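Lab notebook, page 48
Experiment: co-folding of the full assembly
Goal: obtain a model of how the components sit together before planning crosslinking
Operator: M.T.
Materials (sequences as entered):
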Amino acid sequence: MKASSLASGSGATFRELFRSGKYVGPTAGLAPGLVQANLVVLHKELAYDFLLFCQRNPKPCPILEVTAAGCYEAKETAPGSDLRTDLPKYRVFRYGELVAEPTDISGYWQDDFVSFLLGCSFTFEAALQEADIEVRHITLQRNVPMYITNRQCKGAGIMQGPLVVSMRPMLPSNVVKAVQVTSRYHAVHGAPVHIGDPLTLGIADLSKPDMGDAVDVLPGEVPVFWACGCTPQAVVMGVKPPLVITHAPGHMFITDWHDRDLLTY
Amino acid sequence: MKASSLASGSGATFRELFRSGKYVGPTAGLAPGLVQANLVVLHKELAYDFLLFCQRNPKPCPILEVTAAGCYEAKETAPGSDLRTDLPKYRVFRYGELVAEPTDISGYWQDDFVSFLLGCSFTFEAALQEADIEVRHITLQRNVPMYITNRQCKGAGIMQGPLVVSMRPMLPSNVVKAVQVTSRYHAVHGAPVHIGDPLTLGIADLSKPDMGDAVDVLPGEVPVFWACGCTPQAVVMGVKPPLVITHAPGHMFITDWHDRDLLTY
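Observation: model returned without errors.
Model output:
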């Protein structure tokens, strides 16, 4: 099934489609207006450190919902959902190594799993587009370019690691507006963390992202960097806990919440 | 020592004064411009539920800092501080009962204690005053009136309980400005939770607050209610864990952070 035939629909419609296995692609551009979320699933014994890590690093890890241990329904953001089946694709990490990219994690599920849903930049990208700012990777129909930076997040117990950022190039004349628009969305990474020279973040080559796809930076454009919800994946790869499951990059959980609900007043 | 002789000074100056035991009074009006914080100290085994409770109820429980287990220094908000001695007065709850109001908790300290510092309305009251809105209990030199409402917070594990609110009366002509000003301070309770009829919150008599002091509501004035950092005390009284220590109402922890640092953009 093509994403283009699914542009609209309720959150439940999309979750059922992914659950059925008929669509396993990325969710960018799907369900416009609905909040999409990053997923991190881990054992309860790791949940405190991870929750505190999120609290200390709200820009890369803005929490939308944390489930009770063993509960696979996102009761707040998507009543009736099943987090084991309702994303198009997952990533399974054992001791920090990516070992599988299944489309269903029912076989991995354990009774003490806690699921974290974190805000995703798709929400603020819609707001950028409404403000007439081109979002390059959407134009190019690619995944957003993501980079592991030289900035360390604030650690929490065993959880520590570098800040991961996403990058969107734009004309200098749009930068102020981009800061203003995204500042109003704290729950989805908020304002940029850096504007301009990638080397400041330790990024040597914009054409070689650590995750996602490279995009063209046109002459005269400035790269603008936002904290990225893939930061927990970098943490997991460094901390190497026995088992952690996340969404596959770009393959998000579609909630029932509306982007407008996340506006900061 | 009189509070009036201490109007200004660094956070460390005030913490040292309280540590010395020479001042044990409330901190309202002290250290203008510096962020003051609510304190909740509990055993590590309760910390996950309490952290999640705060995450789910950010208006009454806006987290400024969570210490590592056993660490009594607030490294982020007040480097060099000692949370066992640096508040003018504490409250000790055993199984939900208030059993002591010491000015030093060194004798109670345990190696697995985790300390939570939560935002306090003193920060937004300064902003209200700067916006030329009278804050009645400050005018009257009383503690703010606080009420236990009929609204339940979102539960987290064993942590659950009612929302506690603080109340400030004002003329209707000031209400819009009060909403605007406090909306900009998410880290200190943010916008009001209710404006007008106290019965909507289950408050039968404004002249009988559950905590703090009553204040006059003048003819034509409207009561405006904000989520209150004493909510965790109501939770503790209901959940009855073996040992929890908090600040005494109005006797806050003075940090090194500036009110302006908490402005939401």
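Interpretation: Helices of chain B lie at 11-20, 44-56, 122-130, 136-139, 172-183, 231-239.
Next step: discuss with group before ordering constructs.
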